[in-house]
Amino acid sequence: MLRETVRRFMQREVHPLEATLPHDTAGLSRDQLIPLQDKARRLGLWALQTPEMYGGAGLSVLGQVVVAEEASKCRMGAFFPALGAFGGNPPNIMFKASPEQFQRFAQPILDGRMTKAYTAISEASGGSDPARAITLRAVRDGDEYVLDGSKMWTSHAEGADWGVVYARTGEGRAGISCFIVERGTPGLTFNRIGVMASFAPYELHFDNVRVPAANRIGAEGGGFALASDFLVYSRILYAAGPIGIAQEALNSACRWAKGREVFGGRLSDKQGVAWMLVDAEVELRAARLLMYQAAWNADLGRDVKVDASIAKMYGTEAAYKVIDTCIQVHGALGLSDELPLERWFRDLRVKRLGEGATEVQRLVVARELFR
User: Fold this and answer.
1) Where is the Acyl-CoA dehydrogenase/oxidase C-terminal domain (predicted)?
2) Using the 8-state DSSP alphabet, how is residue 216 labeled?
3) Which has the least CB within 10 A, 68, 75, 162, 337?
4) What band does 40 get if pLDDT is binned at 50, 70 and 90?
């Protein structure tokens, strides 16, 4: 029922709106986004990841995966599922914040009075091993912390009302703290980083940025421990978007192959082409089941560190291969901006790196094998 509700919303609200926008549009204007979010809220498609005790829908991880898979089936789906309609979720770390912090920063997002917040972990020194790579310093000065350094590859940063920033207050994993940094804080600047995808991340510069000690989430040095569970679960959800996009691409390729006349027959009658699409179907079924299994185990409270890494690794790699196959089947049309395929190809190339590169996920699995 949840899947069908999201699917209908995509067909009735998302696809017609997206059809009016340029091919490489990344995000909606506020005037476009707010009415779309209002429609989603009336259907109960709001704050889906947020626990019920905070006023959200409290979907299980499996439920979140189902929504994410369907919501990705649009041109912007890799970075703006359902064009951003299903909002209301603050950064997950806020569920471990103090009641005062939650009320001040997270509640306005749940209520729709603020649209988004960012999470800044990665740095130029390394994104796949943040516990060791974080060099942004936060030094206590009375009732404030002074932040100096930079962050890289931060999504949805510019225009966000506030963000969660991880900074070093000591040594090792136990020396990382988490801070809420508000937009407009003196010394904080944003630089857009051009990448091959249609959606661009940002570099954040902190030049003597003063943050109230009251904006620290949890104990000093406890930031990475607070985030660890969420980082694992996010890998499962991260796989859903690419899988949904790849399925949509495969559906398009099958329709094209059935209607395309070549060499005296339909393209779908050519065994070489048919088997390419069969292999794509098998890859996506395997990826989807690995993702569902990881989500189900998470809902059962099991340790899913390895399951999540496998789901993320296999899902993003399989989806990228399927998109490549679908472009090949469409021929030159697949390279044009008449179809979303070439945009998806660029976007899914990024997904093989995000939330921990494929090689990092293999390292996680290898450690478990040899343990």
Assistant:
1) 221-369
2) E
3) 337
4) very high
